Structure formats: structure tokens, C-alpha cells
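Format is sequence with structure; example below:
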Amino acid sequence: MQIAMNTVVTITYELRDSDGNILEASKDPVSYLHGGYDNIFPRVEEELHGKSVGDSIELTLEPADAFGDYDEELVQIEPASAFPTQELKVGMQFEGEDESGDVVLYTITNIEDGKVIVDGNHPWAGERVLFKASVTAVRAAGNEEVEHGHVHGAGGHHH
């Protein structure tokens, strides 16, 4: 079966930075609903369209096609007293809102003199990345999966 609209695609993948370092790799195969449901990078989905089990892809994603451009406005300095815990550490993450009310995950990048620097950018924002994937399974999606816009069961979402 070929990958097409409303198929459940299972892949193994590897994501590398521009220096060839592995940023992330699937330990187990992952599944997504194919067909513009925003469950995977759109350029990756385009590249996988029409492929079958055993096929592989490799493509370079510019920041706009992956984790976005780095946005300086998502870096903020806050007083340590603004945080719900006194034991702040670099790398801790907190949810916040941007100007439009969207939830943003902020990561503490520095703590100094009672001030905390938080960054709402994805850690790989602004990075060009290499995405490699191998197709391990393809099946027709169930009606409920199409209605919900995501995969159910093993490798997908559970209700």
C-alpha cells in the first residue's frame, strides 16, 4: 500500500543538526495520520507521499519548515519571585502565554542576581536540520482516526 490521504504511516526517524550530530532518533516506530493533519512537518509529509513500506527519505529542512526561526521576543527576563518554586534551575520549563494568548513552553536559560532568563523558542529554533525516515508500515485509517485527525492505538493517541 502506498502512502496517501488518510493512511496511517509508521516510520522510524533520525533528526540531525547541520554538523551531523543526532538531535533525536526514534527508539520505537512512530505513527501519524497522513493527509495534512499537522501531525508531522508538512515537507516531510510531502516527501513521504506515494512511498511504501521499505522506502526511505532524507531531506534538509530549513528553520521555517521545521522548528521555526529564532524569535528574540520570546526571550524574557523575569524576577525570580515570579516563579512558583524557590528551587529554580537552568533547564526547568514553565508554561506561559504570548501576546496572543497562545500557550508557550518557556525554558530557564540563566539565573543571576535574582533575575531569571526564560526562552520560549524551541531548543532547535533557527536550526537547519536533516530528517531521515524509513517507512515500516502503512494502513488505511479508521473513520474515528480521520474524524479526530490523529492515529489511535499502538504508536498513536489513546482516548
Notes: The first helix runs from residue 42 to 48. The radius of gyration is 19 Å.
